[in-house]
Amino acid sequence: MTDKACPEFDRHMLEALVCPVTHTALHYDRDRQELVSKAAGLAFPIHAGIPIMLIDEARQIKAD
Length: 64
Description:
It comes from Paracoccus onubensis. By secondary structure, the protein is mostly beta strands. Helix content is 0%, strand content 27%. Strands 1, 2, 3, 4 and 5 form a five-stranded antiparallel beta sheet that branches. Strand 2 and strand 3 form a beta hairpin.
């Protein structure tokens, strides 16, 4: 088994990506490797540097 580093998320993608539910801006959570939509209360995972923008794959987050 080889230990390859996962590709980093390209933060420039944030300029083009919006929440698929609310069409609002997303926040990049580097520690959790997620794109967070505070408006929708969802966090979309990032796998191998690729954001998974499917609602069924998103994690619900608590409202602040």
